[in-house]
């Protein structure tokens, strides 16, 4: 091996170690089994929003009242722009006077009914690593934030996501200071350790399928204060209920979707309405969810 080869191999190895040191890679081994198996659900819903371009990326925008409507970023699951997902954010936007923007991070190449489940775990792991926070999701998110600062004059944003999007939301809530309220719904590959880096208020909404998130919640409560976090587990709704796998024929899921919508709406309105750059004070606070 020549010296330049050594240098290249060394640089690659160093880069890899730096990424590892920054945060653990998305790990499919800790993704709930339900997530790796269950398929998107068919729907006849007709989305109410519009789609625009930012560079080479589409952005779905829910209907909104006016320029003052609070901008909230939403990160979908790996099934991309699914009409079930659009229905859930259309409803939330109407309930909270939000302008919810859903970037097409996967550039029109999500997993679909025909490519899911992937033939093995390795294939899924590779797919997710090519769309990691470090690879391009952080850069895309920063570009979206800059764009909406220009378009609306706002400088603080809400952000939430489900499944894969939940993991991306935790990264954003840890690194991007513009995010002032966040929520994760049935997240995947989120570890308790990650709670130690979260800086934005964050509400946890697991389904019946994710690991216990109370330890994560306890860390957030101690670091951010009781009013700047919350935890509600839906014990009778499966992983996926807030995304492409929403089943509007299942009353337990409809109930979970409605309650999730109400909790996020209230939490985000409260967090985003304060002018101060510091966290909310928590005296006499009553959580909208159940701990
Ligand atoms: C989603 O809704 C749009 C608008 O009604 C429709 O054109 C599209 O075919 C739907 N997608 C699927 C996969 O059904
Ligand atoms: C949706 O829920 C209904 C009611 O529980 C159930 O009969 C149906 O099989 C579900 N559909 C899918 C695709 O899981
Ligand atoms: C908060 O900020 C808004 C917009 O910048 C301003 O109109 C409002 O008066 C401020 N409220 C307080 C309590 O400072």
TrEMBL record:
Keyword Signal attached: yes
Domain Dienelactone hydrolase: 68-264
Domain of life the protein comes from: Eukaryota
InterPro entries: Dienelactn_hydro (IPR002925)
Secretion signal span: 1-21
Stated name of the protein: Dienelactone hydrolase domain-containing protein
PANTHER family, sorted: DIENELACTONE HYDROLASE DOMAIN-CONTAINING PROTEIN-RELATED, DIENELACTONE HYDROLASE FAMILY PROTEIN (AFU_ORTHOLOGUE AFUA_6G01940)
């Amino acid at each position: 091996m020549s010296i330049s080869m050594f240098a290249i191999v060394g640089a690659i190895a160093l880069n890899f170690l730096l990424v590892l040191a920054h945060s653990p890679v998305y790990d499919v081994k800790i993704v709930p089994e339900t997530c790796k198996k269950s398929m998107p659900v068919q729907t006849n819903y007709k989305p109410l929003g519009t789609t625009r371009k930012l560079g080479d990326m589409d952005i779905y925008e829910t209907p909104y009242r006016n320029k003052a409507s609070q901008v909230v970023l939403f990160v979908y699951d790996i099934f991309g722009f699914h009409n079930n997902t659009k229905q859930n954010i259309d409803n939330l936007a109407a309930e909270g006077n939000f302008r919810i923007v859903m970037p097409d991070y996967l550039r029109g190449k999500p997993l679909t009914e025909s490519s899911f489940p992937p033939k093995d775990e390795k294939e899924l792991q590779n797919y997710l690593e090519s769309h990691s926070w470090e690879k391009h999701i952080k850069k895309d998110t920063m570009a979206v934030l800059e764009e909406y600062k220009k378009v609306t004059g706002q400088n603080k944003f809400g952000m939430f996501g489900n499944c894969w999007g939940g993991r991306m939301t935790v990264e954003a809530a840890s690194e991007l200071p513009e995010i002032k309220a966040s929520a994760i719904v049935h997240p995947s590959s989120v570890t308790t350790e990650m709670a130690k880096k979260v800086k934005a208020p964050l509400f946890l909404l697991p389904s019946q399928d994710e690991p216990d998130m109370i330890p994560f919640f306890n860390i957030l409560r101690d670091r951010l204060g009781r009013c700047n976090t919350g935890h509600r587990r839906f014990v009778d709704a499966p992983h996926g209920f807030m995304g492409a796998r929403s089943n509007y024929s299942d009353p337990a899921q409809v109930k979970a979707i409605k309650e999730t919508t109400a909790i996020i709406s209230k939490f985000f309105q409260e967090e985003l309405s304060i002018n101060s750059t510091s966290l909310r004070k928590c005296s006499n606070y009553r959580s909208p969810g159940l701990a």
